[in-house]
Write a structure and sequence with these properties.
The chain is α+β, with helices and mostly antiparallel strands. The protein contains eight helices and eight strands; from the N terminus they run H-E-E-H-E-E-E-H-E-E-E-H-H-H-H-H.
């Protein structure tokens, strides 16, 4: 069954890349930019067809893809070249790939939530006997946690996570009877309750019916949770809490998907879990690709904005070859990093 999950993971990863490149392709076409080739996969072509000005290709390694636009990496005399377009058009084209990935993540999450009857909610349903935090000046049944110490509560598990990471005194914002209630410097520590194995805060969270508006809200909140996890991971990387060996590339991602499928109790659960993970990866790709790093779309956007500002101040057009040099250097570094990550991924599998 592992081989089937590996193939499923490869297929999903290929879809994520295809959706990303299709975003660039469609917006480029809408903006009148000449697209020389639209390819799914990397390496030698196993199928290709010329249609109009664009070569469509399916290549043998399903872990990549590209949308090759005229004048994308240098100057071109073609009036329909990417470099000849207005800055706002280039900006739309560059952002379209990440937008598509984020949108795909939202769609997958929503589809997975369609069959839900109820969702766990960060709303207080009841208190344990003797809970000292219940009262007119404290917490009440029906209170919905909005934020804890300025951190937005989107899912029920955020409540426990944020309380455990605090110092015992919190600034709480609650939704109560249609109004926002603020409890500042509210002291709250877990205590031991009779019959419980570990210390608890003494309140129980409830559920809410999965109506269509609630499903839509939970879809968005889940996407925002995924985004927060990505930014937390980046923060850990910057602060040295995780290293390159902890990163995963295409090989590692497919392996994680296969492992997720193997650990599920049934094939149905495996498909659900892999698709849920795929939604996280889609949103992860959307954010990571917009980082201001040369060779990534975010780096291209950053240099585009810098170029626009410089040209507006100097009233001179910059030679696009300099930008291409920066992206070429960034691509070399990026490919080197991907090579190291792929080597580590393969090493992890054999270990």
């Amino acid at each position: 069954m592992t081989a089937a999950y590996v193939l499923f993971g490869i297929l999903i990863f290929g879809v994520l890349i295809a959706v990303h490149e299709f975003g660039h392709f469609t917006v480029a076409k809408l903006c009148g930019v000449k697209v020389n080739e639209f390819a799914i996969g990397m390496g030698p072509a196993i199928w290709k067809k010329q249609k109009g000005e664009t070569l469509y290709a399916l290549r043998c390694i399903p872990l990549g893809g590209y949308c090759a636009m005229e004048g994308e990496d240098g100057d071109s005399e073609d009036p329909r070249a990417f470099s000849a377009q207005a800055p706002w058009k280039r900006l739309l084209i560059l952002c379209a790939g990440s937008f598509n990935n984020f949108l795909l993540g939202l769609i997958v999450i929503f589809c997975l939530y369609l069959g839900a009857a109820a969702f766990a909610s960060p709303t207080i349903a009841s208190f344990m006997e003797g809970c000292p935090y219940e009262g007119a000046d404290g917490l009440q049944v029906g209170d919905r946690f909005i934020s804890i110490d300025g951190q937005r509560v989107r899912q029920y598990y955020d409540v426990g996570d944020f309380l455990r990471s605090g110092d015992g005194v919190y600034d709480l914002v609650l939704a109560r009877d249609g109004k926002r209630v603020r409890l500042e410097n509210f002291a709250m520590e877990p205590i031991q309750y009779e019959g419980q194995e570990k210390k608890l805060y003494g309140f129980n969270l409830g559920y809410e019916e999965a109506t269509l508006p609630v499903k839509l809200r939970h879809t968005w909140d889940t996407a925002m949770e995924f985004s927060r996890m990505v930014w937390m991971g980046l923060g850990q990387l910057v602060h040295g809490e995780v290293g390159i060996r902890d990163l995963s590339g295409p090989v590692g991602i497919v392996d994680i998907m296969a492992e997720t499928g193997e650990n599920a109790e049934s094939t149905r659960d495996a498909v659900y879990d892999i698709l849920f993970l795929s939604a996280f990866i889609a949103i992860n790709l959307a954010i990571m690709n917009m980082l201001p790093i040369p060779a990534l779309d975010g780096g291209r956007v950053f240099l585009l904005l810098v170029t626009v500002v410089i040209e507006a101040v100097t009233r001179k057009k910059l030679d696009p070859k300099y930008e291409s040099y920066v992206h070429a250097a960034g691509m070399v570094l990026l490919l080197s990093l991907m090579g190291v990550i792929m080597f580590n991924d393969v090493l992890k599998i054999f270990q």
